[in-house]
Structure formats: structure tokens, C-alpha cells
Amino acid sequence: MKLYSYFRSSASFRVRIALNLKGLSYEYAAVHLVRNGGEQLAQTYRSIHADGLVPALEDDGQLLQQSLAIIEYLDEIHPQPPLLPGTPAGRAYARSLALQIACDIHPLNNLRVLKYLTGTLGVSDEARQQWYRHWVTTGFTSLEARLAADSRTGKLSCGDQPTLADLCLVPQVWNAQRFGIPLDAYPTIMRINDYAMTLDAFALAAPAKQPDAE
Amino acid sequence: MKLYSYFRSSASFRVRIALNLKGLSYEYAAVHLVRNGGEQLAQTYRSIHADGLVPALEDDGQLLQQSLAIIEYLDEIHPQPPLLPGTPAGRAYARSLALQIACDIHPLNNLRVLKYLTGTLGVSDEARQQWYRHWVTTGFTSLEARLAADSRTGKLSCGDQPTLADLCLVPQVWNAQRFGIPLDAYPTIMRINDYAMTLDAFALAAPAKQPDAE
């Protein structure tokens, strides 16, 4: 397996955790999203992923994209340990937590969107930071309420074993911290994050541990 | 089953198609996203979905949210007809097409984001329309290239049977048309959309056919 990744990309971070949890070794192909005006725009990577987005996973002659689709694929071909709960309702719950991050927070705050805000719309750095904070705060407030109220919450989002929900939560927390967002208002999220980061699969997937870390 | 839906919500539209394809009857609970400053913000719906977002599905005492999680749930509890291809790689491909829309296009263009652009950032209506068009164009250009090049493309996104990919594609096309985005540059997307709309499950899920349509 070969993972096209950028150390700071939180979508790449999700897939790195999944690969670690499954105990799968893989080749790390760094695609730098900032250097040289965006190495991901280079023709070579465009032949791998037409949009120039990371991550992409090469496996068995297939080129897969979209982090959640890649993680579901890994979970299907290497079922142990499972990354989703054992019942349809449990899986729907775990997936909904993951999608709250992957659809309702992350797409609004990724690099290409922040660039559009300052570049095309000409908003100030302060307004861009407020935009970032607004979507994290909105999303985390909802997520915190769900996690704090739900009896399924354990050491992690769905019980004590890592699920797709945690694979999205931890990189989003990392990203929010990087942008200096105060996270005191989200004690359940932070408790889950801090516990997850004691596990090797999460800790070794962190941006600072990647070969392309700066 | 009870579906909390808004006729114009493209995420609700996705779930309505899934329910129709599975032949499941359901109660339609309309949640109006615009009237009275957003009926979804009313306390009653907040007890169903804390974020006030649609759709939500009530089934068997469970309250499910996030359209893709709901659709995967429906596919697990009512496997026929399947909404994903039969192989892990095929499923990853269908999910990646769906997520390209659900993560890379739709979240940037939904109501709360457009409101933030004009309300909080004070961008002009024209700049808001350009924003909308930018993300549709970026996403559809990529999707068109994938669908036009992939041998799995049939009458629909993955062969001739409806999959999760089509359940996302058709509502996104509807949404783009509503905003007056020219779609001539996406002949494969439009061919798939037009064929899908000849199928009852899609046609009857369309916004204009819903009880709360205006």
C-alpha cells in the first residue's frame, strides 16, 4: 500500500490512524500542499488525484480517494480490529459523529477555502480566523452535547475501542489547536482526544511524526 | 419511520431517494429552514436534532442524523436493492464519488454558509453567487472527469443500478440548477442525472413533489 499524504492534512491524519490500527505497513508518499505554490498541483500528482487533494491510497492496483471511503475500504478488507460498532444503529451513530466533522466542520476550514476567503473575497486575516473559529465552535458545541449526553460514550466516542468517529475527532482537535482555538468548552471531546493520543496508533499518526513534518 | 425533511434540502433529497429505492413508507415531517427565521431553530426540532439541521430519521426508537449515515443504515437493515457495489474497491469508488459531493461541494454551499458570507462577512450577492459557482464548478469538473474516464460508469455513476453516488449527484445537480449554474460542461453528470430522473424513486423524491413544496 502507498499513501499519498501531507503531514498537516487532517484527512490524511485520519487514514494514517486507520492504517496503524489495522497494523498495515505502507509506503509514505509526501505531497506538499504549500511549498512551490502547492506541489499537489504538479502534473505528477494530478495523474494520481485529478483534484490534487490528499489523501489518496494505492492498493492492489486501485487508486482510492476520499478519507472516509478509504477507511471504510480498509475496514472491509482488514476487518480486525473493527472501526465501526457491531449494530446498524451503532454504526449509524459512529458514522454520524464522523460526518459531523468531515462534512460540517472540516470542508469549511481547509486550505483551499481559507485561500479563497483571503485571496478572492479579500477578507482580512482576522475575519478569516473568525470564520475558522465559527465553524469549529458551531460543530464542536453540537458534538460535545451529543458525546456528553450519550450513554455509548466511553473512553472514546463509541465505547472504549477506536471507531471512525475518533479517527475524525482527533485530527480535527489537532487542527483547531494549530489555529489557536480555545477548547476548554469541550471537556468530553478533549477527554476523548487526550485518551486517544495515549494510544500508539493515534500518536504515531500525528503530523509531527511524519517524514514530511517541518 | 419518520423523516424530518425540508423540500429544498439536498441532504434530505438524498435520503428520500434511498427510502423510495428501498420501497419503505415513512411519515414526512416538514422542517422549514427559512420561514419564521428558520423553523429548524425552534425548540421542538432542537429536541430532535440539536443543530437544527435536516434530515433526521426516526426508526425503531433511534434518532439518526447525517444523510450518508442514514443511507448506509437503511442499506444495512434493508439490503435490497443494494445501494453500494458488490466489492470493497467498488464500494470505495461509489463512496468516494458521494463524498466528493457531500464533503467537497455541498457543505460550502448550504444555507448557513451562504448566510455567513452575506451576513457576517458582508460580501455582495454577486460575490456570494460566484462563491457558489466556484465550488460547484471545481467539484463537478473533477467529478465529470472521473465519470467520463471510468469504465464502471454506466447509465448511472456505477453501472446501471442506483448507488450512493447517484443519491448525492442528483440533488447536487438540482441545487446547482436552482442557482442558475450552467451545466453544459458536464455531459456525463447530466446524462446520469437525466436518466436517474426517469426513475420513480428519484422523480418522486424531488423537492417539487414534497408536501412542504412551495
Automatic annotation (TrEMBL), chains A, B:
Alphabetized InterPro entries for the sequence: Glutathione-S-Trfase_C-like (IPR010987), Glutathione-S-Trfase_C_sf (IPR036282), Glutathione_S-Trfase (IPR040079), Glutathione_S-Trfase_N (IPR004045), GST_Zeta (IPR005955), GST_Zeta_C (IPR034330), GST_Zeta_N (IPR034333), Thioredoxin-like_sf (IPR036249)
Gene that encodes the chain: maiA
EC number assigned by the record: 5.2.1.2
Protein name: Maleylacetoacetate isomerase
Ranges of residues in domain GST N-terminal: 1-82
Keyword line: Isomerase
Any one Gene Ontology molecular-function term assigned to this protein's record: maleylacetoacetate isomerase activity
Keyword hit for Translocase: no
Protein biosynthesis recorded as keyword: no
Ranges annotated as spanning the membrane: none
NCBIfam families xref list: maiA
Family note: Belongs to the GST superfamily. Zeta family.
Domain GST C-terminal intervals: 87-214
Source species, domain of life: Bacteria
